[in-house]
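ugh ok fine here u go
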Amino acid sequence: MNGANWQIEQGCPQCGAPTTLDETDRLLACPFCRTRLCIAADGPFHYYLPPAAGGEGQLLFLPYWRLRGSCFSVRDSEVTHRFVDANALALPLPELPASLGLRPQVLKLRFTIPNREGRFIAPELPVKQAIPELAASSPDLFHRAFIGDAVSLIHAPFFLRGDRLFDAVLGRPVCDCRTDRREFFEKSSSPPAKEVRFVPALCPHCGRDLEGEKDSLVLLCRNCDSAWECRGNEFQRVAFAVLKPPAGTTQIALYLPFWRMKPRIAGLDLSSYADLIRLANLSKAITPAFEAASLYFWSPAFKVNPALYSRWARQMTVFRPLGERENRFPAPPLYPVTLPLSEATEGIAVTLAQLLTDKRRLYPKLAGLEVRLEEACLEYHPFLLDRKELLHAELRVALDRTALTYGNRM
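structure:
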């Protein structure tokens, strides 16, 4: 795969005008009626590829998992990462095409809708078992995490005619269907359609329009200084804070979002910042203040390449930017939140693995590590523009501006 966004064909729910969405879009802005709607679903988004007109036979939609994102693996002596962009058949039927190939990059997808003509076959393989890159394991693999990933289910069209299965897009025969296979398809009941929902992007507190880019997972209201995330059929408030720049700092170019998380980690003696200093052998003197300080992990709340994600999560967790905060949005632009808290939580074990020094003794404890969040907050950190780099106003750590374009390609 080339990492390009797949596109979805969708009519505006308000006026019916045709619109085209990218796979990562979570906000529909109709160019005709100016309606702004948040796109929500229970679990992964479900799509289908439309069949060509004029096909004959029983119309079947067979499931394929789609996953794209960064895969981190903790092995016996190191943490490795790679980008995964794959799709695979979600049924244990080797005679069928193993993947969708390039077809979704050429044809536009559509959201599944209730009562659509054709039989939608439910997946029988979970995504981590269906995709070979994820199913592979080894004795030295202690932990695996997927961060910045997009998981969806795509149903591809086929016609069952007699004893043969045909591709419903190209009209070509795919394979012969034995009696048991034909009975499986005929008796398999369609799964409940995962209907996508469109929620008006209005602030639940004051009724004003919510702000956000088309791929924003958190929408902002500058009228009442509140942040909201669409869950189910409604918006839920997101706790946030804005770090004040150091005194005398001028010309803030951008505020980047980070998740600050206070975890409870089972199986490790790790509850304070002093505990992290000991386990990571940090060059810091352990003081009573560090013994009493809660342990926080930070994660970028935006998509960057795996190497930069690891570096920023590690540096922020070690340096602990705990400066003065406020709960009002600043004037400079706020970069959109494109990485959810759930995936940032997955990254805690990866950050911890990078910090641990006694890998031989502690890495095996990461297998099946249970991490629960006690609290979480969305923080916006001020960055200065320094030539081609963005410089954290407090930590003075640089980020190349071009690194932010990575999220636009995911």
